[in-house]
Write a structure and sequence with these properties.
The complex is a heterodimer of chains A (324) and B (174). Chain A is of the alpha/beta class. Chain A has ten helices and 16 strands. Chain A has two domains: 132 residues, Beta-Lactamase (2-Layer Sandwich); 167 residues, Rossmann fold, CATH 3.40.50. The chains are: A alpha/beta (324), B mainly alpha (174). At the A-B interface, helix 4 of A face helix 2 of B.
C-alpha cells in the first residue's frame, strides 16, 4: 500500500462509520490525490483534488452528478466531530474557538457552525454544521535542489519569501525547506530554527509532538500569533532562522523588523501571484523598501501543485533556477 | 445414631443460614457498589471539569484511581470506544450495560442513571459538564440513600429468616 493511501485510510478512521465505508470505496488512484474532504449538513459529500470539487456517491464513486451524490445528515457531522475531538470537545475549546482542530497526522479540521461569544471573545462553536478536513501531506525532498540557492558563500541563510496563490504547495515547500535547513544535509551544520506555527499546519503538533518532519534543530511555537511568536522566539529560543507561514498583517511586519534587527534570518510565505502583486500590498511596503529579502520563490500550478515558476534575487531578477 | 441426627440438623441449619446471609449480602453489595460508583463518577468529574483530560484518558484514570471492584467498567467503556471507533460514547455505555446488571447487583434505575451519563458525557463545554455531573451525582446519591435503607431493613431480615427457617426445619425433623 502506498504511503498516501495509508495516510488517507488513517484519516478516515476519524469519521462516522458510514462515511468511513463510503470513502474507503473511493478508487485507490484518487485516494492518494484527495486534498480536502468536505462535510456539510444536508449537502452532498464532497472531496477536492487538483483544485476542483467532486461529489461522492453512496458507493464511493466520484462524479459531478448531484442526483447520485450521498447527502450528509446531522448525525454524520455530529458523530464525526465526536471522534475528531476524541469524544472530548471540552478539552479542545481553545482550538475550536480558533475554528479548527488538528488531529493525529497533522491534518486540520475546520469547523463551521454557530459562533458563541463570551467574556473572552469567541469561546465555542455550537450547532456544528460543517467540517472541512484538510489532508496534510508531507512531500519530503521537494526543496533539496533549492537549498544551495538560499545560502550565500559565507554560509548565511538568505532571507527568503515564498510567493504563491492558495493551494499551490507553499506550506509544503516551506516545511521541507525548514527540515533541510534544520537537519543540515546540504551545508556543514544545520541552523537552529524557530517555527511560528499559527495555524498548526507546518509542524502539525498533536499532544506536543510534531507530526511532520521539521528537522532536529527546530523549535515550534504552536497555535501562536505570528507577531507574538516572533518576539517570544527572539527572547527565548535564540534561533538562527525564524520561519512563518502567510505573513501580511501590520503587526507581523513590526515583529519581523524586530527579528531582523536582532540579526535573525527569516523565511516566510505570502499569498500572491507574483512579486509585483506582493510589492503592492501596503503592509509589505516597508519590507521591500529596506530590501529585506534576498530570494523570492514564485510558485504556481503550471506543472502540478508546487511547481516552482522562478526564483528571483533581491532585485527581482531571475537567478536562472530550472526545475528538472 | 444421635450423632448422625445432630450432624444432619447442623447441616440443615448451616445451609439455611448461608442462604439467608447470601440474600442479605445482595443489599450490602448494591449499597457498596453504588458508593464506589459515586466515587468513580466524582473522579471522572475532576478529570473532565478541572483537568480537562480527553475522555479516553479520563476513563483510564478513573479505572486506575477508583475502587477496582467497580472502576474496571470505565476501562471497559474506553476499550469499547476506541477499538470500535464508536460514533458516540453512549453506544459504549450501552455495551457495558450487561456487566452492570451481572456484577453489581444494581437495580434497573441504578443502571439507567449511569447509562444516561453516556448520553451527555463529553458533548459540551466544561461548565455544562459540571452541571451534568451534579445532576447525575444527585441522582446516584438518591439511589445510595434508598439502597442504604433497603440494606438496613432487609439484610437483618434475610439473615434472621435464614437462621429461623433452619431452626424451624430442624425442630420439625427432630
Amino acid at each position: 500500500m502506498k504511503n498516501e493511501q495509508i495516510i488517507f485510510n488513517n484519516l478516515i478512521e476519524n469519521l462516522n462509520g458510514e462515511l468511513r465505508r463510503i470513502l474507503s470505496n473511493i478508487p485507490v488512484d484518487y485516494q492518494g490525490k484527495i486534498e480536502e474532504i468536505r462535510l456539510r449538513r444536508g449537502r452532498p459529500l464532497m472531496i477536492s483534488y487538483d483544485g476542483k470539487d467532486y461529489l461522492v456517491s453512496k458507493g464511493g464513486e466520484i462524479s459531478s452528478d448531484m442526483t447520485k451524490a450521498f447527502i450528509l445528515a446531522d448525525n454524520h457531522i455530529q458523530s464525526s466531530f465526536q471522534i475528531i475531538s476524541n469524544y472530548s470537545p471540552y478539552a479542545y475549546l481553545e482550538e475550536i474557538s480558533r475554528g479548527y482542530i488538528t488531529i493525529r497526522g497533522g491534518h486540520r479540521v475546520g469547523i463551521g457552525g454557530r459562533v458563541i461569544y463570551g467574556n473572552r471573545g469567541i469561546e465555542n462553536i455550537g450547532n456544528i454544521s460543517s467540517l472541512n478536513i484538510r489532508i496534510a501531506r508531507e512531500v519530503l525532498g521537494v526543496s533539496n535542489k533549492l537549498i544551495p540557492h538560499l545560502i550565500d558563500r559565507t554560509g548565511y541563510f538568505i532571507n527568503t519569501l515564498i510567493i504563491s496563490p492558495p493551494q499551490c504547495g507553499k506550506t509544503t515547500l516551506l516545511r521541507d525547506i525548514i527540515r533541510n535547513l534544520s537537519d543540515g544535509h546540504y551545508h556543514k551544520q544545520g541552523y537552529k530554527i524557530s517555527v511560528i506555527d499559527e495555524r498548526s499546519e507546518l509542524a502539525g503538533m498533536y499532544n506536543g509532538l510534531a507530526q511532520n518532519q521539521i528537522g532536529i534543530r527546530t523549535d515550534v511555537l504552536d497555535a501562536c500569533l505570528k507577531s507574538d511568536g516572533i518576539i517570544m522566539a527572539i527572547r527565548s529560543l535564540s534561533p538562527d532562522i525564524i520561519a512563518v507561514d502567510e505573513i501580511g498583517g501590520e503587526r507581523d511586519i513590526d515583529a519581523i523588523n524586530e527579528a531582523l534587527r536582532a540579526g535573525i534570518r527569516l523565511i516566510a510565505t505570502i499569498h500572491g501571484d507574483d512579486l509585483r502583486e506582493v510589492r503592492g500590498k501596503p503592509s509589505m511596503r516597508a519590507l521591500f523598501q529596506d530590501k529585506i529579502f534576498g530570494r523570492y520563490i514564485i510558485l504556481d500550478r503550471s506543472k502540478g501543485v508546487g511547481s516552482i515558476r522562478d526564483i528571483l534575487d533581491g532585485s527581482g531578477n531571475s537567478i536562472g533556477f530550472k526545475e528538472v | 445414631m444421635n450423632l448422625l441426627k445432630l450432624l444432619f440438623a447442623l447441616c440443615i441449619f448451616g445451609t439455611s443460614s448461608i442462604i439467608g446471609f447470601s440474600y442479605g449480602q445482595v443489599f450490602t453489595l448494591r449499597y457498596e457498589n453504588l458508593l464506589y460508583l459515586e466515587q468513580c463518577i466524582k473522579i471522572l468529574e475532576t478529570e473532565i471539569v478541572f483537568a480537562t483530560s480527553p475522555l479516553p484518558e479520563a476513563l483510564s484514570n478513573v479505572a486506575r484511581k477508583g475502587k477496582a471492584r467497580v472502576s474496571f467498567v470505565f476501562e471497559e467503556i474506553k476499550k469499547d470506544l476506541i477499538s470500535n471507533r464508536r460514533d458516540s460514547i453512549y453506544e459504549s455505555f450501552l455495551a457495558i450495560e450487561k456487566i452492570l446488571y451481572e456484577n453489581f447487583h444494581f437495580k434497573k434505575e441504578d443502571v439507567e442513571i449511569f447509562i444516561s451519563l453516556g448520553r451527555v458525557l463529553g458533548s459540551s463545554d466544561r461548565l455544562d459538564q459540571a452541571k451534568i455531573f451534579r445532576l447525575i451525582l444527585n441522582q446516584i446519591e438518591g439511589q445510595i440513600g434508598e439502597a442504604k435503607e433497603e440494606k438496613n431493613q432487609n439484610e437483618k431480615l434475610y439473615r434472621s429468616l435464614g437462621i429461623i427457617t433452619g431452626i424451624g426445619i430442624v425442630i420439625l425433623l427432630l
